[in-house]
Predict the 3D structure of the following.
Amino acid sequence: MSKHPGRLPLAPQQIEANLSTMPHWRQEKDNLIRDYEFATFLAAMAFMVYMGLVSEQLQHHPSWHSNYSKLRVSIGTHDPGGISALDFAWIIEVERGLPPGVV
């Protein structure tokens, strides 16, 4: 059974090239991580709902931890045990819905 090409692990050079265009994201082992800080708790929750909708659409789901208006998001492709093109596609879609002024 072949894997979807978007779920295949990327080479380290491909990961570095993609991350160079995403300054707020960093790699930790087999995951991509970003910390967000929103103006309010409700703004953070609204963004989490948006991330959930994107995740369902792409059938690719992050891990996250929230603390009032702060949010840490981690995304990685578990099937191949590495970072894949799908992780970067997810980030691009999620960041499109980011409200202005979020750190």
Residues 27-96 form a domain with the Gyrase A; domain 2 fold (CATH 3.30.1360.20). The first strand starts at residue 26 and ends at 28. The longest helix spans residues 41-58. Strands lie at 26-28, 31-37, 63-67, 70-75.
